[in-house]
Amino acid sequence: MRTLRVVPLVLVVAFLASAPAALAQQKQATAVGSGGAAATVDFLGTRAATQTLKAGGNAVDAAVAAAAVLGVTEPYSCGIGGGGFMVIRTPEGKVTTIDSREESPAAMQPDSFLQNGAPLPFNDARYSGLSAGVPGTVAGWDRALREYGTQSLSKTLQQGIDTARKGFTVDQTFVDQTNPNVDFFDDLPATAEIYLDPDGTARNVGTTLRNPDLARTYERIAKLGTKGFYRGAVADAMVEAAQNPPIAGDANHTWRPGLMTMRDLHRYAAIEREPTKVNYRGLDVWGMGPPSSGGSTVGEALNILEGYDLGQLDRVRALHLFLESSRFSFADRNRYLADPAFFAVPLAGLLSDEYAAERRALITGQAATSPVAPGEPPGSSTTHLVVSDDEGTVVSYTFTIESTGGNGIVVPEWGFLLNNELTDFNFDSLTHPNRADGDKRPRSSMSPTIVTDAGEPFLAVGSPGGSMIITTTLQVLLERLDLGRTLPEAIATPRASQRNTPATAAEPAFISSPEGQALASEYGHTFAPSAEIGAVTGIEFLGGGRVLAAAEPVRRGGGHAETTRTP
Question: Residue-wise pLDDT tens for the chain (567 aa)?
């Protein structure tokens, strides 16, 4: 089963004094106060952001600093071997996005993932050099800082360097993420050296995991800028690792060679793009446009839902409409979303009120049978981060290496895992808009979101979770904006994810709830258990200088939230 893990990081950042070292692992899921705040899945990631603001940086600086630390402490979910999407609101109210999505090598063809005319099994495609796209994270950090930050890339990497050298404490969540990869990690000496004990098992809970090779990579980038990553020694090693996976002589899997070249690395650029925008009940909801499908699919579903007075409906009926709007929006997402450089994505049509009305008219009092067909709109998975500073800059940033552990290949001597992002192509098709092609960015579900009210920040949310990122973000917005939940309650509420599939993925607590039971018995929904869906972090601006930061209380081991000042 595909598992895209992008770790959520939400930050509203300002000054915050350091906590004693003894408190370094004591997480709190919710914090309310004044000034700035931060919420991430990791204490050290949160602390990196707040320390950056304390040193005079702005929200973009803090976002990069936190992301660099998460590249050390959450390496299976994110890092410089991957890519992502960042939504930024400036103090002047401008909203823009930076696309640092991974890109396929120029040599990739629609049949690159086929063998004897049939698509490779997912794990065969994933655990290979073939799945590695050209990483965009470093270029994205650099562009964000140059355009909207106040600090240098060198300065924002320092806390990541320190964390890589000093190490972090392995917890049960980290062990649980390692175990499914052990049989593949032990094929690769460079990967096993960092993430496995000498006996070939996962690192033990409570031990300290250091990564001096990654510290050296960060130091090289700090000294040379993006050239320190996309050219020279690191680039040479990355290309070699992708083209000739560095496996042990007794490896028990086939690791296919990849197509990445130095020319591919030299040509990569992060792109600034227009955000998606829909107006929902008087609020502006900003998201990420193609090649991400997050902003368009969340936006289309919200447009469909706006035709109902959800606050006046009983909760079961409202959740039925949430699942059905997701079902029909996902049909369109699966048909039309791809890299806009290769396919004329009908974005305006997908987000139009007229088209929403057409799709809304297909929703009945019973669950539709999936797969439902896509419509005809007019016109042609991970770490999530949201940051705000006292000047009004807000950042919502999701970045990833795709599946938990990426493609499994640590670049020897440089300490970072490569992504398997190219498995996000529809590699079983030679004609789909999202088919594999050269120099192309695969479709993503990452959905970094900022909500503004009359131009002022109101919410910033996001989540990991592969294609379930979209429905997770949508459900949190629905719970908070329509169904009377506070932001912490919206985050903690049991989740369900309908993605135009016969059965709706749902957490056991959702299935067993009175609402879940009624959805099955009264509305005809069928559920497939999913142990955990998403891992949200969010920020709400309460007015009067007060702010609320919230993270998961339980999912993914729980997150950590702080405010700069108590009420």
Answer: 333 345 455 554 433 333 333 334 588 898 888 777 788 889 999 889 888 887 889 999 999 999 999 999 999 999 999 999 999 999 999 999 999 999 999 999 999 999 999 999 999 999 999 999 999 999 999 999 999 999 999 999 999 999 999 999 999 999 999 999 999 999 999 999 999 999 999 999 999 999 999 999 999 999 999 999 999 999 999 999 999 999 999 999 999 999 999 999 999 999 999 999 999 999 999 999 999 999 999 999 999 999 999 999 999 999 999 999 999 999 999 999 999 999 999 999 999 999 999 999 999 999 999 999 999 998 654 767 677 777 888 888 888 999 999 999 999 999 999 999 999 999 999 999 999 999 999 999 999 999 999 999 999 999 999 999 999 999 999 999 999 999 999 999 999 999 999 999 999 999 999 999 999 999 999 999 999 999 999 999 999 888 899 999 999 999 988 877 777
| Residue 177: both structure tokens together | 């993420």
Both tokens assigned to 501: 């599939």
Give the separation between CA 85 and CA 271, rounded to whole angstroms. Answer: 10
Class of domain 276-382+447-552: mainly alpha
Cβ atoms of residues 476 and 549 within 8 Å: no
Q: Is 297 a catalytic residue?
A: no
Q: Show Cβ contacts of residue 22 under 8 Å, excluding neighbours closer than 6 positions.
A: none
Residue 421 DSSP symbol: G
DSSP label at residue 175: H
Residue with tokens 């690159």: 112
HSE value, Cβ hemisphere, 13 Å, CA-based, for 137: 33
CA separation for the pair 392, 395 (Å, rounded): 10
Is the distance from CB of 328 to CB of 359 less than 8 angstroms? yes
- Decide if 498 contacts 328 (C-beta within 8 A): no
Q: Report the 10 Å Cβ neighbour count for 539.
A: 29
Report the alpha-carbon distance of residue 452 to residue 366 in Å, rounded: 34
Q: What is the CA radius of gyration of the chain?
A: 22
CA angle 398, 399, 402 (to 5 degrees): 120
Instruction: Give me 113's structure tokens.
Output: 């993932």
Q: Both tokens of residue 328?
A: 């029909």
Q: Coil, strand, or helix at residue 497?
A: strand
| The token pair that represents 357 in the structure block | 């009305």
pTM over 0.85: yes
User: DSSP letters of 36-90?
Assistant: EEEEES-HHHHHHHHHHHHTT--HHHHHHHHHHHHHHHSTTT-STTSEEEEEEE-
| Burial letters 208-222, b for 16+ CB under 10 A, else e | ebbbebbbbbbbbbb
Of 439, 566, 564, 567, nearest to 13 by C-alpha is 564
Structure tokens that stand for 426 in this block: 């529809």
CB–CB of 384/10 below 8 Å?
A: yes
> Which amino acid, one-letter code, is at 79?
G
Tokens 């985050």 found at? 491
Residues 8 and 465: their CA atoms lie apart, in Å, by 10
The residue from 73, 178, 382, 393 that is catalytic is 382
DSSP 370-399: SSPPP---S----EEEEEE-TTS-EEEEEE
